[in-house]
């Protein structure tokens, strides 16, 4: 049987979610002619050595660097400036960004019929933040970029009043991720109330300190697990359409 090849590039890849997710998907759906492999690349130039694949996912640190190797980009990938999914078709390599899809589909149910929040704080200014800014722009939610050194505002300048004025707070930093689960973004958490929605792109641990501190003050919380599954499913749809 000729196997259809898919995989993930990045470095390091030891704790990746995608291989287990696709192995489970293939098993559940009784797909026996597909494989999903890890390609830990120490340098992005090694990307050209990958042959005979139908689709590739991209993770840290190559979501931006890989763009130079692609023939075309989807509108989303181009606007965001980051690619996490590549489709090989007709000798071309086309880049997509499914993080934005995963984030938007997992975010909106949070309001649960209530009005969408008007203002957000986005913590961090990396690749994941760029997908989040794109989605907030699409949804018409105004936001401030919170950063240690750049963006609209630093953590030191965030006071209780600013927290009270921004009902959606999204953590796109790795702060609080296992094994550093005792850390959380440096915020005046006393400003968080039952009017707030806290979304953490981190999914390990399931409830980060950021989320548990928000929940203690009554906020609606969500981690990045569903986003991760949705972006993987969307990649699969793109490869098979
Ligand atoms: N759930 C999902 O589907 C999903 C998808 C993509 C990413 N993620 C997760 O999202 C997180 C960020 O991913 P990324 O690719 O954007 O990573 P990244 O580029 O390495 O980091 C994001 C930003 O976090 C801030 N940051 C980094 N270390 C920090 C620290 N010690 N203290 C405070 N801020 C810090 C930085 O912004 P400043 O320099 O501006 O402060 C940095 O640009 C990761 O944990 C990743 O696993 C989840």
Structural class: alpha/beta
CATH architecture of the largest domain: 3-Layer(aba) Sandwich
Residues in helices, as a percent range = 25-40%
Reported by name, the CATH topology of the largest domain is Rossmann fold
Oligomer: single chain
Q: What's the number of domains?
A: 2
What topology, given as strand order, has the largest sheet? 2-1-3-5-6-4
The average pLDDT value, as a whole number, equals 96
Q: What radius of gyration results from the CA coordinates? A: 19 Å
Q: How much of the residues is beta strand, in percent? A: 15-25%
Tally of individual helices? 7
The description of the largest β-sheet is: 6 strands, mixed
- CATH secondary-structure class of the largest domain: Alpha Beta
- The low-pLDDT segments are none
Termini separation: 22 Å
């Amino acid at each position: 049987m000729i196997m259809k090849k898919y995989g993930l590039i990045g470095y390091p890849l030891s704790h990746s979610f995608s291989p287990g997710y696709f192995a489970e998907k293939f098993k559940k759906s009784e797909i026996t002619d597909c494989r999903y492999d890890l390609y830990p690349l120490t340098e992005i130039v090694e990307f050209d050595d990958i042959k005979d694949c139908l689709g590739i996912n991209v993770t840290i640190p190559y979501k931006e660097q890989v763009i130079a190797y692609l023939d075309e980009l989807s509108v989303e990938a181009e606007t965001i400036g980051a690619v996490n999914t590549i489709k090989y078709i007709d000798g071309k390599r086309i880049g997509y960004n499914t993080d934005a899809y995963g984030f938007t589909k997992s975010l909106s149910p949070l309001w649960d019929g209530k009005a969408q929040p008007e203002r957000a704080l986005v913590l961090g200014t990396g690749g994941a933040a760029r997908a989040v800014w794109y989605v907030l722009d699409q949804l018409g939610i105004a936001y401030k970029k919170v950063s240690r050194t750049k963006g609209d505002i630093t953590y030191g300048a965030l006071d209780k009043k600013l927290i009270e004025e921004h009902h959606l707070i999204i953590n796109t930093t790795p702060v609080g991720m296992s094994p550093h689960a005792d850390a959380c973004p440096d915020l005046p958490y006393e400003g968080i109330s039952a009017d707030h929605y806290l979304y953490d792109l981190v999914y390990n641990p399931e409830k980060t300190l950021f989320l548990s501190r928000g929940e203690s003050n009554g906020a609606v919380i969500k981690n990045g697990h569903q986003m991760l599954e949705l972006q993987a499913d969307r990649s699969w749809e793109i490869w098979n359409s």
